[in-house]
Amino acid sequence: xxxxxxxxxxxxxxxxxxxxxxxxxxxxxxxxxxxxxxxxxxxxxxxxxxxxxxxxxxxxxxxxxxxxxxxxxxxxxxxxxxxxxxxxxxxxxxxxxxxxxxxxxxxxxxxxxxxxxxxxxxxxxxxxxxxxxxxxxxxxxxxxxxxxxxxxxxxxxxxxxxxxxxxxxxxxxxxxxxxxxxxxxxxxxxxxxxxxxxxxxxxxxxxxxxxxxxxxxxxxxxxxxxxxxxxxxxxxxxxxxxxxxxxxxxxxxxxxxxxxxxxxxxxxxxxxxxxxxxxxxxxxxxxxxxxxxxxxxxxxxxxxxxxxxxxxxxxxxxxxxxxxxxxxxxxxxxxxxxxxxxxxxxxxxxxxxxxxxxxxx
Length: 361
What we know:
Blueprint: H1 3-10, E1 13-16, H2 21-25, H3 28-36, E2 38-41, H4 45-53, H5 59-67, H6 72-97, E3 105-108, H7 117-131, E4 136-141, H8 146-155, E5 160-165, H9 168-187, E6 196-201, H10 203-209, H11 221-237, H12 240-247, E7 254-258, H13 271-275, E8 281-285, H14 287-296, H15 310-319, H16 324-360
Parallel strand pairs: 1-2, 1-8, 3-4, 4-5, 5-6, 6-7, 7-8
């Protein structure tokens, strides 16, 4: 049993932070499932921009869709959902075996909607309907405008992956939106089983402060934020409010670790995966990190439910002049802007490819 399989045995789901048509065609995704116990995957505009830009695998699809009059977002949505349906079908046995707890794929609403509540609600419903797969999450960012869209989408029965969370406070806001959506469904005598995950981004913290702190404190902030958030997650699951919903048949919104590839070339390439080992959570890992962990990673124990030394570590960062509350807001804004940039590049790439393929055809 390799270390990735051991994490699965521990009760943590390993999801791939990538999707390409090539890995579906050549069996790579199925191999990751078999060899590394990968039980789901996530996508985002950056992932699709790289997949479409670095491969000819999408050219025929782009050409055919452009010929039929599709362009821009509509063309991309069809292209992306073709991949995600195939991946969802691969994970469907996991989804069925776990009664819908695991075996998911994720598709992002347009990043241009990050500050548009009603637009996000409409887009989430449209994507989920168009996907025609029960094991597809729609990703909505946990921005201030995204939080009410999360609540309404859950109430509407749309499974939501809350993305771009960077702090305990942002996580709690997303979790409470989920709870409100479920409570409203119960009040309306609707099925309370609507799945959701809340995605906390970890390594971007350390990249943001790397040049502002002494060497001995590097690559410790993201893990401390995760520890603090994990404590809040455990406290929520133990709360009377949640227990009441669980008794009515609701499912927990699972905590997901995002951005777990190491960005510091001087740090261990398995740093975050090892530190974030925790039952009842999900770790989305880039391919490179997944392979590295399976080969030489170590499970050094599980995260402490009370956050361990997270607060003492965070206190040291505060003393060093790092305002984590302000930085969390900035990281969320920066993350949303980065996805907008990727989205715009993706739309340009599709337009350019459509034109080039039309002339070539």
